[in-house]
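Record 1 of the preview.
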Amino acid sequence: MNQMVNKQTAEAFVLIREEPSPLRYRPLRGQALDLRSHSDPSHPDNARYEEGKDYVVDYDEGWIRRERGSRIPDGSHHPIYGMRPFDQATYPDYSNRAYTVYADYAIEAGQVEAAVTAADVERSGLLERTIRKLANGEEATYVVYGDSISAGGEASEPRLAYYNRFADQLGRLFPRGRLSVVNKSIGGEASVGGAKRVDADVVPLRPDLVSIGYGMNDQYKLDDGNSVSLEDFEKNLRHMIDTIREACDSDIVLVTPCEPNPNWLYASGDIPHYADTVRRLGRAYGIGVADAHALWREELAAGKTPESLLLNNINHPNDYGHWIYSRAFSIMLNTASGFPREPVECPPIVADN
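->
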């Protein structure tokens, strides 16, 4: 019997010395693992790394590690490596860009969810207005609203930002229509800013679909508490949802935030509470929740490090992280997967020594 095979694409790693790093899924033996310096395999500046010379893969245990003398950048040479807590303002270059590598490898099909179909999207009932237009061959408008993550921060190309991946997925499922993406996100903004400008920046566009992604800047730790309290965070989201619903009757999807690097000076540790608020509002309003936070926790529990998911080493997903966000949209729309997914418990993250 032929083995059903899927592919894990552009999984990101920051490899430390010659220490094993878990692969997210168990790779299939006999299928080559491709390791390179850019997530796009066709990138003209790609450095290609050689298995057995630059890195070793254990196909039975499911890990990868650098070889001594490898051309792969050693993450332990990062100036922030081992610093806890760190303030990025004191370092001229705190990004993980120079240390991040990406792998494609074959996996058994059962290790990931089945692809979402048009029937799944229709059954979910979460994008009723948008799908009706696309299925009828009309143009629908998708407004992306939120902070720097929703602005596409740290995606290497616009097409790899989570919202464009999601829009492309809808385009493939409903090819008769056209989805126009308008990004109204602002880097550095917390939910209070989104609440203040929703009337001016979203309502006039009369969108068919709006995704709302806040929480990362709301949790920002200050001397006297977080940037925006949980109570105010909820009030701000409610204001945005109510305003859009009353003025436009748009389909709305809430997006939970990923986890920042816990070694970052301004990480409060409260992101799970902000994500829970988003989930609760999704249930209360009966609207979709793309639960990126739950999937992010799964990645961490499986052994992925914050550095391997955050390109700026603080709070911006790399290309693989944006894929995790887009996967949250798929799970939301796949009724067979359950909604919303319960977040998993993660082992505590220990500072590097």
